[in-house]
Write a structure and sequence with these properties.
The chain starts with 7 loop residues before the first strand and ends with a helix. It is an alpha+beta fold. Strands 1-2-3 form a 3-stranded mixed β-sheet. It is built from 5 helices and 3 strands. The longest helix is centred in the last third of the chain and has 14 residues.
Length: about 80
């Protein structure tokens, strides 16, 4: 994951000025919150998180085909 250094915020700043951090997310899409100068948390819009969790139909179909091909013999036995 590439991180834009202008999207980095210390945990202290996030705690003291959360509304500013939320505006940064609105403008830039994401903010990385640092704890002890180490990236620790990622703040993104809820709709973005929701979209990331949904797999496309093509991805699901591709995975299904790969699993069917890999376990073909087992499925043949179970089908009897």
């Amino acid at each position: 994951m590439n991180v834009n250094t202008s999207n980095l915020v210390s945990i202290t700043e996030a705690n003291q000025n959360f509304s500013r951090v939320a505006r940064m997310v609105d403008e830039r899409g994401a903010v990385v919150i640092l704890k002890n100068n180490t990236p620790r948390y990622l703040l993104i819009e809820f709709s973005s998180a929701e979209a990331e969790q949904t797999a496309s139909d093509e991805d699901v179909l591709s995975i299904s085909r790969r699993l069917l091909a890999k376990n073909h013999e087992a499925y043949e036995v179970l089908a009897k």
